[in-house]
Design a protein that fits this description.
Radius of gyration: 16 Å
Shape: elongated
Structural class: alpha+beta
Number of helices: 3
Largest sheet: 3 strands, antiparallel
Strand order of the largest sheet: 1-2-3
Number of strands: 3
C-alpha cells in the first residue's frame, strides 16, 4: 500500500485534513496552515474552469484585451465562468 501525500496547492503545506465531499463525490481537503490564503481545495477538478492555472489565464487574457466570449472559446469554458472570475479578481477602488 502506497500513501500519497496531499499538499496544499497554494502554500505547499502538508498540514491538510479531509473536509467532506463535493457534489460530484470528489474528496475535498482543508489546509490548516493559518497563513494560507486558500481554505479548501479538491485535488482533481471535474471542470477546467476551476483550475487556478485557467483562472490566471482568464486574467491574463483580459489584461491583453480579449473579450469574455473570445476567452471562453479559446479556453473551452463557460462565458459565465469568465465573467465571475473577473468579478472576483477585480478590486474596488478606494475613495
Amino acid at each position: 500500500m502506497v500513501l500519497e501525500p496531499v499538499l496544499c496547492p497554494s502554500c505547499g503545506s502538508s498540514d491538510v485534513v479531509k473536509h467532506g465531499q463535493s457534489s460530484e463525490g470528489k474528496q475535498r481537503y482543508k489546509c490548516r496552515n493559518s497563513e494560507c490564503s486558500r481554505c479548501t481545495f479538491i485535488r482533481t477538478y471535474a471542470y477546467r474552469g476551476y483550475l487556478p492555472e485557467v483562472k490566471q489565464q482568464i486574467v491574463d487574457m483580459a489584461i491583453n484585451g480579449s473579450g469574455t466570449r473570445d476567452t471562453a472559446r479559446v479556453l473551452t469554458i463557460s462565458r459565465t465562468t469568465v465573467t465571475e472570475t473577473l468579478k472576483k479578481r477585480s478590486t474596488p477602488e478606494s475613495s
